[in-house]
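haha ok so turns out i had the wrong file open the whole time. this is the CORRECT one, sorry everyone. sequence first:
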Amino acid sequence: MRSAQRFAGPALVLLTAPAAWGVPLDPDGRFEATLLLQPRLEMAFGDPPSLDPSLQRAWLGFSGHPAARLSFAFVAGVEDFGRGGDWSADLKLREGWLEWNFGERLQVDAGLMVPPWAAHTLLQEQSRLSPDDHAGLLSFPNGTAGRDVGLQARGRLFNHHLEYRVAGLGGVGTGQGLQETDYDGDGTPDADPLSPDDLPRVTARLAWSFFTPQGGPGPEGFRPRHIALELRDGVVQSQRKLVTVGVAIDHQQDALYVEHRDYTGDVVSARRADYTALTGDLLVEMPMRDGRRSLHALVAGSWFPFDEQHPQAGPSILGEGGWRFGRWEPFGSYELHDAPDDAWDWMSWHLGLALWLPERASALKIAGGAWRVGGGRDLDGCAQLQAQFAF
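then structure:
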């Protein structure tokens, strides 16, 4: 069993034990049910052009504070339902954790969570600016995805300006990988199994907020929000001034393979390598004119992984920004990943327009642009239309 999962189980017992030992439930405890629906229509301007309707997300969440120091959050639902013509429902738990609050400076979380890495991976889905998840810039160890099981310690220091997060996660399990591949045809595995020592994946993040602090105990501070709008006297406004700079590292020993290929492109050997990724980011929400207008920006740079011979190794950059006036907000985004193997290169840009609706965090977004995978010069045009309803 993977190392982080081994200590996540006992941690869940420790977090819930105080309630079982007689810690009284809070009669004023808050509970909240949320629903996020994001239908999407994508058009590819190929030959011939194609339309791809889907349900990007349909998530039902439940969170709360049943006791003074105990919090929880669970989110389940489907993603990309109908994308590419696949209408089979992949209904599963997307996030589920318990938290014991030791004070403003320390909260301990256990369960299935988003690793505390780059800002664009941590942001709440309903608070993002563009309909794009920037998935082209997300790289993880083999066999893991955007969520992982384990423990996280977090808190705020220096009058709430500095937020720290440290997580020990399951990552790649022992034996996972290409060990069954027979490169030379002698009937025996040629690649050693990954993660032989069963060491956890460790992710750590520091973020400094110059104005409104991020984070804080409970579900409302577990994942940051980029855009926080509210309806006052029929006018969409933002009263939060946010400028946050963050750095993070993600590491697991022997969690990657570096494959070596011959002139035909066939894999002839593979060796284990450490998975290490670094990122730095800037998140901005700056209200102006009594909050009726606001500037939104997200800038991030990362490097994955730190092994020059890995085909995906190399720098990535991401930038997006928008200017909201009332309910309307034009925005743009750009992504680039430069890998030594041209097949792993990635570039995209989008321009769009968002209409923020009176309902909380609901919007209509339309964007058009182009993207390219690999080292070719041809760009593929695309357009996206997303409706977002958050209740």
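Confidence is low (pLDDT under 50) at residues 17-22.
again sry for the mixup
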